[in-house]
Amino acid sequence: MHVKVLGPGCARCKRLEELTREAALEAGVSVEIEHVTDTDRILDYPIVSTPGLVIEEKVRMSGRLPRREEIVAWLRETAGQAEAAKGASTTG
């Protein structure tokens, strides 16, 4: 699962990356985290302020640090959607 942390590399951005790694372990999902610091690339996403969290190209939040439990839920939801889509493509 591809996850992007959007932000200039500030302390909150780094903390979001740490929280995301912890959440992935708790959720039992494998993630590849990319820290996007380039302003032009950040502006490709509809976020108001940093840090931002993008999971599989879906913006999940911006401008705050979420609780680890929130990130766990987002990761599990995304993993579930991916599994459902995979199952639909193999049965249809």
Question: Judging from the principal axes of the Cα atoms, what is the shape?
Answer: globular
Show unreliable segments.
none
In the CATH scheme, the class would be: Alpha Beta
Count of spatially separate domains: 1
Distance N to C terminus = 24 Å
User: Strand portion, in percent?
Assistant: 15-25%
Number of strands: 4
Pfam family, one: Thioredoxin_3
Domain Thioredoxin-like fold: 1-75
Active site: 10, 13
Disulfide bonds: 10-13
Task: Provide tags for this entry.
92 residues, alpha+beta, Glutaredoxin, four-stranded mixed beta sheet, 3 helices, 4 strands, Redox-active disulfide protein 2, disulfide bond, Thioredoxin-like_sf, THIRX-like_proc
List the helices and strands and how they pair.
Blueprint (H helix, E strand, L loop, with lengths): L1 E5 L4 H17 L4 E5 L2 H4 L9 E4 L2 E5 L5 H24 L1
Parallel strand pairs: 1-2
Antiparallel strand pairs: 1-3, 3-4
Overall description:
- This protein is an alpha+beta fold and about 90 residues long.
- It is about 50% helix and about 20% strand.
- It has a single domain, classed as 3-Layer(aba) Sandwich (Glutaredoxin).
- It has 3 helices and 4 strands; from the N terminus they run βαβαββα.
- Strand 1, helix 1 and strand 2 form a beta-alpha-beta unit.
- Helix 1 crosses helix 3.
- The protein starts with a strand and ends with a helix.
- The model has no long low-confidence stretch (mean pLDDT about 90).
- InterPro entries: Thioredoxin-like_fold, Thioredoxin-like_sf, THIRX-like_proc.
- Keywords: Disulfide bond, Redox-active center.
- This is Redox-active disulfide protein 2.
